[in-house]
Amino acid sequence: MKRSVGIATATALVLALTACGGDTGTDTPAEDVGDNGSTVDETPADGGESTGATDGSEATEGGTAGGEGAALPDLSGEELEVAAVWTGTEQERFTMVLDSFEEQTGATVQYTSTGDDIAPVLTPRVEGGNPPDVAFLPQPGLLNEFAGRDALKPLTEDVEATIDANYAPVWKDLGTVDGDLYGVWFKAANKSTIWYDVEALDAAGVTPPETWDDLVTASQTVSDSGVTPWSVAGADGWTLTDWFENVYLSQAGPDMYDQLTNHEIPWTDPSVEEALNTLAEIWGADGFVAEGALQTDFPTSVTRVFSSGDAAMVYEGDFVAGVIGGETEAVVGEDANFFPFPAVGEAPAVVGGGDVAVAFTDTEATMALMSYLASPEAAEIWVAEGGFTSPNKSVDTALYPDDISRGIAEGLIAAGDAFRFDMSDQMPSAFGGTPGQGMWQDLTDFLADPSDVQGVMDSLEANASKAYGR
Amino acid sequence: MSQTATQVRPGGGGTPARTRRPPAREGRWLAWLFLAPAGVVLLALVLWPIVYSVWRSLFDRSGRAFIGLGNYQRIFTDADTFTALKNNLIWVLVAPALVTVLGLIFAVLTERVRWGTAFKLIVFMPMAISFLAAGIIFRVVYDQDPDRGVANAVVTGVHDVFSSSAQYPGARPRDADALPPAAAGGYATADTVEPGSTVPLPLVGVEGDALPEDPSAAQAAGEPAADAITGTVWFDFARGGGGAPGEIDDNESALPGVVVQALRDGEVVAEATTDDQGLFVLEGLDPGGYQLALPAGNFAQPFRGVSWLGPDLVTPAIIVAYVWMWAGFAMVLIGAGLAAIPRDALEAARIDGANEWQVFRLITVPLLAPVLTVVLVTMIINVLKIFDLVYIIAPGSSAQAANVIAVQMWSVSFGGAQDFGLGSALGVFLFLLVLPAMLFNIRRFRQEQQ
Amino acid sequence: MSVATGGGAATVPETVETQRPPKRVTGPLGGWGSRITAFLNRGLVSVVLTLIAVFWLLPTLGLFFSSLRSAQDNTASGWWNALTAPAQLTLDNYQNLLSNEGMVNAFFNTVWITVPATVLVVVLASLAAYAFAWMDFPGRDWLFIVVVGLLVVPVQVALIPVAGLFGDLGIYGTRLSVILFHVAFGLPFAVFLLRNFFAGVPKELLEAARMDGAGEWRIFRSVIMPLGLPAIASLGIFQFLWVWNDMLIALVFADSSAAPLTVALQSQARQFGSNIDVLATGAFLSLVVPLVVFFSFQRYFEQGVLAGSVK
């Protein structure tokens, strides 16, 4: 399950929810980035130039180049509300993206953080006929749900053209429900990355493993060296579903993965049992998982590796880099590094996630914002800040603040159709996306007692049957 | 103040029985005019919704298919909802009683100290703050890490007074076959050794902090005397990897201070502690076979406190937070009842030689019975509807273990599932649970009116 | 503590007096022995109560000190370390919070929800309570029994229907929707409390006013309202605290631009470990107002508790 996690730091408090109306608009977005991006070590020197081409004044005149960017109309006096799960550092950085839109169009955009759980916030608002104009849904399942309730507005041809120009077809398909295009995949995640404390692995003499067996051996070696190998965020069930998905996709293969995603095979299938047993080789091994995992939330699971030194490795998606940069003293690329999730079966798995922007209203301003979000210039603002991977193929990858994030992004773009979307994101959210329920809870239980494979499978199947309604 | 406290009023608020009959006035329409604003609001936002909820609860999630009592059946068959029911039962059985008893004790005790008023203020204060703030307060208290959470800081502090921590927590033998876990804890050699031999005891998993600041390199033991067993205990892991398992390699550290025992038929016959070079000598041994043991005391993990918010303890932990908030309420009510007890009755008993406990048990408590009942009933209704505290305090991994009806109602309707059918059924179910209290209130009220 | 309760409301003494006279108890203790025991008891009681008081204060103190320490300090060590290292104390969290538009906005939302919801309840309930207490109309007793019945209705039974209703009216998500729901669920208690108090106003006063030719409205305004002030104060404080502290109702009805402090904070609470600086500070700010109200009007607050709960 993909969740862009809120990372509130002291700096996160200084954020402006609503951009200041008094901006002169002479700043280019890239300059804004440079001014505010204090947590980023290097802002690429060419950042200003590359986004300078889509400078506000030019864009508003409609003279954007070759379908890449969107022609933004003058929207002075218009007010928009955008809702997403981002808090803290991520909120701060996304607000910069919105700031640039405000400068270019004159519209006022209010950002609303829904916190971890967006569905419970949006649902009543949709029921009540007062949704935000644009919301970022962290799960395709939610996209389907809201589209099925006729709550979403199809995107206009202009927006579609922007998407066609900037995205691989897979992303357009992922934003389409029953032939109607609803979503712009603004943010993507590569969730097959394992992050490690360079010093700890060096001390143990371990090199990044390429197979699961090597990973288990490496874990044992790290443990022998006197360091607990793993920090697991057991308090956030979604990290556990991601673990499972990486193992399952690589071990059972993409076809089985798709079938399990759609609940066409039961959770009592032998392939699930095999995956859980495999998972237990790490989750259940003596001394492999740092104590108190069940009380550890995701940001803490990262800081336990890179600040407290409780463990050597933590598994989660590329956004871990953002947490390391924002919450710890460790420098990504020096003290912290990643290796791809090793192959469990024959081929390594690439599991991904993302946040899709959808429109609940279809005013000119809303569609202009959607178009803007599909443009490379919007993504590039956040790209340069770090902790962000864009599925937008027109984004200048030189802007990524370091080799690591650039590598992650290039891998994602290059993978094209070859990666699978996060399983739990595509499931009914009652099963795949709700704290304390369904898959989140069952895998939490499994982490607490990795010997009870059968019990977990039975519970998974019972909960899935309930959520899928069959 | 919580909504529930303001809603819960057992009994008809003490209208004096001598209730007046207002003179019949010509302008009846005027009365309706006075009533109309409140009436309209109550009708539209309280009475009608109750009816609608009952109706809606008979339909499925979509609201289109009529499924009769299907949703109510799900309340009892669905595992999550059933957990919520079970927890609510625990809440109702424990929390009100605890609050009432503590309130009674506090009320009685405060009468005996001069600073009783200040004490009352302190205990009563949490009532003024929100469940949310209380939830956050107790998240801080229950933090798992003893360095951060005051509850575990106290628990580990007390624990450490009685047992000191081991020198090498988590360390273990390199070769689990040669040195398997012993029945008595720790590890003991699988094979027996004769005096006059040298036994290497390689360990791994030694935490960096546990090593001495400048550890000596491990050394192989020299030739022992005929009645002695010698050997080395060392950290069989070279920095950066490499080295042969079980061999003392160049840059491997000695482990000083490890207790080594010689066992014969399970009895300890000799004991030694490793020196700075990791060497030990077990002397004065009769000929024969001995097992070497590394007792558990070397390796015990430090006590890291209690998982207050883990699945097992989360409900009791939240109940404690609840009691913290509401004991003051009970104390004030009971205190008022206490103040109204005729002093002469107590004095008479004391003069007759009753001790304080007898006075309390035989006079105070019976006289307070009506007040105690009211507190208990109020708390039961309040506890049935508990939401915020559970919602805030339970971390994700314990959310299900801590579930209660009101939280479940919220999650199924406004959380992921968006099931307004089941949500309505849960709402109605809660309503049914408080119905006895409502009838009790009405009966008391009518009695008072007569 | 004062037993004086909101008007004709709590009548604990009456209740108690209806009890059987207690049995006489005889015991063996007396004289010096009992005096020494009493003295020891008092010392013991003092010690026990002090411990309890510390236990009761500690959690709130913990929140307070946490809010005065940086996020890094809070991650690294417990709040009690600030007692020995006062240099850790800083107002940065508060500064950050106060310059956080979202949180400031949420704070004002709380104010703009709480004040109208309190005033409206007091006004609507006073009118209705007067009618119930001093006006004659058919079905009066029966209607009041309905009000008594409504005292315990859980809000859960109304959330879904009212959400739909507000949606149809186009006010869902606004502060108004939160206010209206609070008013609705605050009214039964308010009417109940005030009616009982108003009914206790001496009949002669009303008769005299009527003799003078005052109409119902005038009597309500110039006789009942001034005399009922203590009860109204109790009610107002209760309603104020209830609304101020509410999370559930705002969680359901308020969108993010209308969300009060409680809702804004809970959305941060899921990532508790890393948001402690915002949470502790926000929570402390959110409880300052109720505490000020509590300490300033403590007498009325207690009276409200007594009037509301005790017969």
Kindly describe this structure:
Chain A has helices spanning 29-36, 47-52, 56-60, 88-105, 119-127, 140-148, 157-166, 169-174, 198-204, 212-224, 237-252, 254-261, 270-283, 298-306, 320-327, 364-373, 376-385, 403-415, 429-432, 438-448, 453-468; strands at 79-84, 108-113, 134-137, 176-177, 180-181, 183-190, 193-197, 230-231, 313-315, 336-340, 351-359, 420-421. Chain A has 470 residues and is α/β, with parallel strands linked by helices. Chain A has 2 domains: 11-190 and 353-418, 3-Layer(aba) Sandwich (D-Maltodextrin-Binding Protein, domain 2); 193-349 and 427-468, D-Maltodextrin-Binding Protein, domain 2 (3-Layer(aba) Sandwich). In chain A, a hairpin with a 2-residue loop joins strand 4 and strand 5 (180-181). Chain A is globular and about 65 Å long. Residues 1-68 of chain A have low confidence and may be disordered. Chain B is an alpha+beta fold and 450 residues long. Chain B has 2 domains: 49-142 and 308-449, MetI-like fold (Orthogonal Bundle), CATH 1.10.3720.10; 172-298, no CATH class. Chain B has helices at 3-7, 28-56, 70-77, 79-110, 116-124, 131-141, 150-162, 314-339, 343-351, 356-384, 388-393, 405-413, 420-449; strands spanning 172-173, 187-188, 198-204, 229-235, 259-264, 267-273, 279-282, 291-294. In chain B, the strands form 2 sheets. Chain B has a 4-stranded mixed sheet with strand order 1-3-4-7, with no helix packed on it. In chain B, strands 2-8-5-6 form a 4-stranded antiparallel sheet, with no helix packed on it. Chain B starts with a helix and ends with a helix. Mean pLDDT of chain B is 85; it is low at 1-24. By secondary structure, chain C is an all-alpha fold. Chain C folds into 2 domains: 29-94, no CATH class; 100-309, Orthogonal Bundle (MetI-like fold). Chain C is built from 16 helices and no strands. In chain C, helix 7 crosses helix 9 (175-199). Chain C is globular. Classes of the chains: A alpha/beta (470), B alpha+beta (450), C mainly alpha (311). Chains A and B meet through helix 5, helix 9, helix 10, helix 20 and helix 21 of A and loops of B.
